[in-house]
Amino acid sequence: MTEISTLGEFALIRHLTENIKIHNSSTVRGIGDDAAVLDYGEKETLVTTDLLLEGIHFDLTYVPLKHLGYKSAVVNFSDIYAMNGQPKQLTVSIGVSKRFSVEDLEDFYEGLRLACEVYGVDIAGGDTSASMTGLCISITCIGESEKGKTVYRNTANNTDLICVSGDLGAAYMGLQLLEREKAVFDGDKDFRPDFGGKEYLLERQLKPEARRDIIKILNDENILPTSMIDISDGLSSELLHICKESAVGCRIYEDRLPIDYQTAMMAEQFNMSLTTAALNGGEDYELLFTVPLALHGKAEDLDSIKIIGFICESQAGASLIARDGTEAPLVAQGWNR
Amino acid sequence: MTEISTLGEFALIRHLTENIKIHNSSTVRGIGDDAAVLDYGEKETLVTTDLLLEGIHFDLTYVPLKHLGYKSAVVNFSDIYAMNGQPKQLTVSIGVSKRFSVEDLEDFYEGLRLACEVYGVDIAGGDTSASMTGLCISITCIGESEKGKTVYRNTANNTDLICVSGDLGAAYMGLQLLEREKAVFDGDKDFRPDFGGKEYLLERQLKPEARRDIIKILNDENILPTSMIDISDGLSSELLHICKESAVGCRIYEDRLPIDYQTAMMAEQFNMSLTTAALNGGEDYELLFTVPLALHGKAEDLDSIKIIGFICESQAGASLIARDGTEAPLVAQGWNR
After folding, report:
1. Does CATH number 3.90.650.10 belong to domain A161-329?
2. Are B75 and B232 in contact (CB under 8 A)?
C-alpha cells in the first residue's frame, strides 16, 4: 500500500492522469493547465473547477460565509484570466452538514452573487446536498477566449521576461494574523482582535480579487504573454510549473519582488522571512506571466506590473538571486492543499 | 434560524437561486435544468456538475471504488443525454482523507476512465486534495448539442405522450439487497452474500449505464422529444418536475410501468410495493420524455421505450391510474439526497 503522502499532490494527479487519451477534436487542451480548453465554434471555451473543503481549504472560525462565497468564485475567475480568457458562467455544488442554517447558505450565496455581479459572470447551475461533516463546496467556472490568444503555461521561451502583477505575500500574512488572533481568542468570549493598520492583509486573505484589470491592460497594450499562470500556491511553485512545463530555467531577483509595506511590517513583527512569505505564501491570486525580451520597455511602463527576472535555458536551472548577489535554487514550498 | 430540513432540497435551491440575473448572451439557459446551456458558436455547450459525498451518496462498505468511478461519470453523462446532447469532456475533483491509499484512487480512476472510454468522453481536468473525513467527489461534464435540438424539461405540451426507456425500480431493489446483506454481514468475516439470480439488480445499482442508445434511436427515427429529463430521483419526482416547469398535468398508468422480473421478485421477497419502487426508487438513469400525440405509432414501435401515459392540462393535476381504474395523485418521494 502506497500512502498518498509519499507522492504529494502534483505527483499523485500526474500519476493518476497519465496516458489519458483524447477522443474529441473539440478537446484542445485537457489536464495540465489552469483550465481545460474546448473548441465549440468561433471561441474557445475554458472550464475550471475547484473543490473547497472545510478544515482543509478554509476555517469558518474566522472566515465569514459571505467572504467564503466571494472568494470561492473569485479564485475560479482567476484561473480563467490566467488563460487570457473571460469568465462567463459558474456552477456551484454545496454539501452541508446539519449545523448549517438556511441563513448560512444565504450568506454564502450572497458573496457568490456579489463576485459574479462584479465580474459579470452568470451563475448557471446550483445544487445542494447533505454532508456528513462540515461544508463542502465545488465550483466550476466556464469562460471564453479568442482563438489563438489562449495563453498556456508551457510556452515560455528562453530570454523572455518574467512579470508579476500586484504584490506578494500579503494573503499569507493575513492568514498568519487570523491564526494568531484565533489562538488568542480561544476561550475568551469578550476578546476583540485589533486589526488596525492591517486591513490590507485581511482583505487579501478574506476577499481577494482576480486580476481582470491586468488582462485588460495587456490586451489594450497589445501584449500577448508567451505563458501565464495565476499565483495560488506561491510564486516559487507557480514559476517552477512554468519552467518545468516549458522546459526552461529562470532567474528572479529578490530585490525585484513586489511587496506591500503592511506585509513587510507584519513579517518583521512575526520574525518571519519576508522573501519566504513572498515566494511561498500562496493565495495571492496575482498573475505571473512571461513576455518576449523585445517588449522590455513596454512591460516596464505598465501599471501594477513588475519585471522580476528572466527565462533562461533549462540546464541553467531555476534560481533566486539574493540582494547580495548570491544564487540559490528556487524551491516550491507551496501549501499543497 | 430556519433549519435547512424545513425547506427540503428543491425549495432550498430555488430559494437560493431566485432572481439570479443573466449577464451574457452566451448563457442560453442557467439554473433549472439537467445542464446549463451555453452558446459559444455553432453548437450549444452543455455543462452539468455533481457532488458525491461518502456516507450521503455512496457507502464504500459495498460499493467498490472502481464501480464508484464508473457510476460517478455515467450519472453525469446521463444529464447531458437528457438534454439531447453528447457528453464530450469531464473534469473531476477528489477530496480524500488519510485512510485512502493511492491504489484506492487508482481504482476510482480506472472506473472513471472506463466509463469515459465507453462513452467517448475526454477527462479534461483532474484535481485531488485532502479531506478531513471520507471521500468527496465533484464531477463536471461538458457536452454539446445541435442548436435548436436541445431538449428542456419545461416544454411539454397538453396531449403529449409520456415515454420512458428501459425499466424502473431495479437500482432501488439492488440497494435494498446490498443494505440487507451489509446488515447480515456485520461482524461476520466469513460471510459470503448470495446474489445468485439478482445480478441485474446489483448491476443497476453498482454499474448503471446512461441511455446514449435511446438518444441515437430517437435521432435516427427523427423524433425530437418535446421535453426530457433523466430519472435519478424516481419517476414521480422527475415527472412532477416536467409538469411543474411546463405548467401541465399528467396521467400515467400503473399497468404501463416497465418493470423487470428480478425487480418484481425482489419486491415480493421484501414485501414491498412494486409500484412504489418503480415510481420512487431512484437511480434508474432512464430517460423520461414526451412526444407529440401524432407520433403515437412511431413511438410505440421503438425498442426499449414504453408509453406510460399522457400530458394533460394543468388543472387536471398529476395522477397515477391504478390497475383497478382508481386515480391517485402522484407524489414525489425521491431520495432528496
Report:
1. yes
2. yes
